[in-house]
């Protein structure tokens, strides 16, 4: 009797983010297109998934039928061997029976191998495609979504939840259908051999089916809850490992261990309940099979004794009971796997139902070539309801000019830049690009004109050259070196043994803060943007390095609309306009000399910083706090 192909154990580790969104802004938060948390919606997606791979599945089902039919040759041959060859002495049937069983065994082995190859490869291809689709969708979600969702949650959802679909387009669904197919044929044959015994057996199987249905109804929420717990554990673990330097610096390893231990214990408790449920199903199946065996011995023994059933029929009946019972037990296991797959599909559907920035762009007009004029008209914005961050900000930055943003911490500088980069959208008011409302043009077109050097310089784990050419992968070595010299990073790069091919490590950990910042500046220069954002772009540079790249900044800013947030006056003194923000409002605007002569808030900030820097120079060892102003 040929064995069914090995099943792929699906693992459903789902991710449900439980954090509260930080930004209240209807125009940018992703919206579910239509969220239907019910089984019918999941079934619809499961059917669509199977329909997409219908050709390979069809081949799999044909192979499955051949495989399962070949499995009935040995039981049938056993009956003829006992009743005809041994019972009646028809030895001429011995060789044909042996050849038939041998041929069926070979056919079963070939179809079993082919089935595993075709269906398993199809399943892995479906997993790959699902991961690709989910990752592409996630990267197109607005920034506000990432502000309120843990990275570990998304990684686990993309990589793990997709695993479950192998049971919908792989061996899981084929084995489930194959089990039903085998059980039906065996049941028909059993009725033919002894309908009384089979009637009682069928009643027991119906009882088993009802029990399985009730069990799976209880198990499915457990699998979904397991994903939610796992998402929290994975998210926290990702944060701990990413911030391992902070963890060690503050000596809180034990606390993080406790948090992780609590999470994995919750996960263990959930898995324990799931195991108990699955074990109960298997135990119930074993009891049913045992009852069938008892009935078979009693009723079958009497039938043989009464002459209504031959010994060959009885042996065939035993084989068929085995062919009936094995798929039932197998279906219980596969049913659990498919329940996990549906739980994973639930979570993927939740994620895929969120609208992306591309969805919004479909109905918007193309931006075209721009000069870079940026204008804000009475812009209001808040991250939390009733806690305004920007209050009626109006600002004009002509194309090709440099605008510096200064103000005390929390005055709204970074938020204003975030709006200019379209990471967030105004709650009211307008942001215009060359006179066009940014809400009415394609976001992708606008961002193609942006270059950014943020306060937190993120480098990817790759070579220095790869990080510099991030926005332009086709840039040649000469271009990379040119911008590196402009950003004053060519010299230190050349000192590395591998030069521009030096691996920077995860988040650029192998470079110093100043080196990372200069590489990020080179990356922005190579992007050749029309609008340049410098958010604390020189905050990690020493005075000598900063002075060396100012000339590079001057040529970089030429012809580009530039917005600068900086601590040091050396960066903003030459700005075309300096905007002073306080409490989310513009309180002063003008050039450096004009604002100094005015004697207002800007001069106060300037004097505070000057006094602080002078004190550090005169009394370098004195404990003296810097001013709260960010210049």
Question: How does this model look, in words?
Answer:
Helix content is 60%, strand content 10%. It is an alpha/beta fold and 631 residues long. The strands form two sheets. Strands 3, 6, 7, 8, 9, 10 and 11 form a seven-stranded mixed sheet that branches. It has a four-stranded antiparallel sheet with strand order 2-1-4-5, with helices on one face. β4 and β5 form a beta hairpin. α2 packs parallel to α8 and α8 runs antiparallel to α12. The longest helix has 53 residues. The chain starts with 38 loop residues before the first helix and ends with a strand.
TL;DR of this structure?
This protein has 631 residues and is an alpha/beta fold. Helix content is 60%, strand content 10%.
At the fourth level of CATH, the homologous superfamily of one domain is ABC transporter type 1, transmembrane domain
SS-derived structural category: alpha/beta
Which regions contain 5 or more consecutive residues with pLDDT less than 50? 1-29, 31-38, 620-631
The gross shape turns out to be elongated
**Number of strand elements:** 11
Provide the residue-averaged pLDDT. Answer: 76
The CATH architecture of one domain comes to Up-down Bundle
What's the Cα radius of gyration?
A: 35 Å
- State the major sheet: 7 strands, mixed
Number of helical elements = 23
Q: What fold name goes in the CATH topology slot of one domain?
A: ABC transporter transmembrane region fold
Strand % is: 5-15%
| CATH classification, class level of one domain | Mainly Alpha
């Amino acid at each position: 009797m040929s064995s069914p192909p090995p099943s792929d154990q699906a693992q459903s580790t789902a991710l449900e983010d439980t954090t509260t969104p930080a930004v209240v802004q209807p125009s940018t938060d992703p919206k579910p297109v239509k969220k239907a948390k019910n089984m019918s919606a999941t079934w619809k997606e499961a059917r669509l998934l199977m329909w997409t791979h219908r050709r390979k599945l069809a081949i799999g089902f044909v192979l499955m039928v051949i495989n399962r039919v070949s499995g009935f040759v040995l039981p049938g041959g056993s009956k003829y061997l006992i009743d005809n060859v041994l019972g009646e002495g028809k030895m001429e049937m011995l060789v044909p029976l042996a050849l038939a069983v041998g041929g069926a065994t070979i056919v079963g082995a070939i179809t079993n191998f082919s089935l595993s190859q075709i269906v398993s490869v199809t399943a892995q291809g479906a997993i790959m495609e699902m991961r690709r689709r989910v990752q592409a969708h996630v990267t197109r979600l607005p920034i506000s979504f990432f502000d309120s969702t843990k990275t570990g949650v998304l990684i686990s959802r993309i990589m793990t939840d997709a695993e479950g679909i192998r049971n919908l387009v792989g061996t899981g669904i084929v084995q489930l259908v194959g089990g039903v197919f085998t059980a039906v044929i065996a049941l028909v044959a059993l009725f033919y051999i002894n309908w009384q015994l089979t009637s009682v057996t069928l009643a027991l199987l119906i009882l088993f089916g009802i029990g399985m249905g009730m069990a799976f109804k209880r198990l499915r929420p457990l699998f979904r809850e397991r994903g939610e717990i796992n998402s929290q554990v994975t998210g926290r673990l990702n944060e701990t490992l990413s911030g391992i330097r902070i963890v060690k610096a503050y000596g809180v390893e034990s606390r993080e261990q406790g948090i992780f231990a609590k999470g994995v214990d919750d996960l263990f408790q959930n898995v324990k309940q799931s195991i108990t449920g699955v074990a109960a199903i298997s135990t119930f199946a074993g009891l049913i099979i045992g009852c069938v065996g008892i009935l078979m011995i009693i009723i079958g023994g009497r039938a043989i004794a009464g002459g209504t059933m031959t010994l060959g029929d009885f042996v065939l009946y035993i084989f068929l009971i085995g062919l009936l019972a094995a798929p039932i037990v197998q279906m219980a296991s596969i049913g659990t796997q498919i329940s996990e797959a549906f739980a994973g599909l639930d979570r993927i559907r939740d994620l895929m139902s969120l609208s992306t920035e591309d969805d919004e762009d479909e109905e918007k007009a193309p931006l075209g070539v721009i000069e870079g004029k940026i204008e804000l008209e009475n812009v209001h914005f808040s991250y939390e309801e009733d806690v305004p961050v920007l209050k009626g900000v109006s600002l004009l930055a002509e194309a090709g000019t440099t605008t510096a943003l200064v103000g005390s911490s929390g005055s709204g500088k970074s938020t204003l830049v975030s709006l200019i980069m379209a990471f967030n959208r105004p709650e009211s008011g307008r942001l215009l690009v060359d006179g066009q409302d940014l809400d009415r043009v394609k976001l992708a077109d606008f961002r193609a004109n942006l270059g950014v050097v943020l306060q937190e310089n993120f480098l990817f784990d790759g070579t220095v050259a790869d990080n510099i050419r991030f926005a332009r992968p086709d840039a040649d070595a000469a271009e990379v070196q040119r911008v590196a010299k402009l950003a004053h990073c060519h010299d230190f790069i050349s000192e590395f043994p591998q030069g521009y091919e030096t691996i920077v490590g995860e988040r650029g950990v192998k470079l110093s803060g100043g080196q990372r910042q200069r590489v990020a500046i080179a990356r922005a220069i190579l992007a050749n943007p029309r609008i340049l954002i410098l958010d604390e772009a020189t905050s990690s540079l020493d005075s000598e390095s900063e002075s060396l790249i100012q000339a590079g900044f001057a040529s970089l800013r030429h012809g580009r609309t530039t917005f600068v947030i900086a601590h040091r006056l050396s960066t903003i003194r030459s700005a075309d306009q300096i905007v002073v923000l306080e409490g989310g409002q513009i309180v002063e605007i003008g050039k450096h000399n004009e604002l100094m002569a005015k004697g207002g808030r800007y001069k106060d900030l300037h004097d505070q910083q000057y006094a602080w820097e002078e004190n550090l120079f005169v009394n370098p060892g004195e404990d003296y706090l810097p001013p709260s102003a960010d210049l």
